Amino acid sequence: MRFLCLHGMGTNPEILESQLDPLRSRLPHTWEFEFLEGEISTNPFPDIAQTYSGPYLCYYRYPTPEAVQSAVDTVLDIAKSDGPFDVILGFSNGAALAATALATAASRSPSDPPQFRAAIFFSSITPYRLNSGPVTLTLEGDTIISATRQDAPSSSRYDLHTDPEASGLVSELQGRKEIKWSEQEPGRVTTDVLLGYYPPLHATRSDSKNLIDIPTVHNIGEQDHNYGESSRRLVELCNPRLRTVITHAGGHHFPREKSVVGKVARAVEEAMERAGWVA
């Protein structure tokens, strides 16, 4: 059993390997975990630097069409050249990239077998829709308060706090420290970004099948106030007959309670059994 593992923003493969140790100790020792390193330097994830040394890396800083497409291509190329892999696993930004790669591969070759047999998502951000636009976010005043959809009339404006497909981008971009938005001149800073999938709208489109149609395990922090809703959106985009959701009492981090780690381990093994794995 081979896992391709994607780390979160502002961490690195060694950090993810350490974070996964409690889970791996409960899984079969013959299972192999390989870690894909982000190629872009960034600031450390909050509180990470207090425990782990760098480098602090990511797969892309901002969800621009070019950056996300490049990261997705890297994941799919690695899966092909170094595979086969049975499972793709990711935390936070890495989980979003994993989900985006799965969705992209399925849309490119819908009749082909999936490149991965199962997926494990920890504290995921909503995956991005590569055909969504892009959207131009504009800074007006101290915060990003408007967006223009490039697939809509130029006069159309969308409040990021109410547009269901764009919601979540504010907190995500404001959480990045590479650009200090509040210090920029009002109305002068713009960036093109992709929209995330929004389950109710996805269900009304012609591609209304499950975005991810393989066994999945989702672990979500009950106190993850920034990204918990994004994680739950990803759950809705996966096949309800093949998904398992496990929560823990904390925030945007891996589960720390031994009982929850045990539940995740059992869920992973059950997912692999659904995918056809025989112990």
TrEMBL record:
What are the protein's UniProt keywords? Hydrolase
The record's InterPro entries line, in alphabetical order, gives: AB_hydrolase_fold (IPR029058), FSH-like_dom (IPR005645), LovG (IPR050593)
Instruction: Please verify whether the record's keywords include DNA-binding.
Output: no
- Give every Serine hydrolase domain span: 2-263
Q: Which GO terms describe its biological process?
A: secondary metabolic process
Keyword Transmembrane helix listed? The answer is no
The superkingdom of the source organism is Eukaryota
Q: Which GO terms describe its molecular function?
A: hydrolase activity
Q: Look up the coiled coil feature and give its residue ranges.
A: none
Q: Which SUPFAM superfamilies match?
A: alpha/beta-Hydrolases
Question: What do the Gene Ontology cellular component annotations say?
Answer: cytoplasm; nucleus
> What's the protein name?
Serine hydrolase FSH
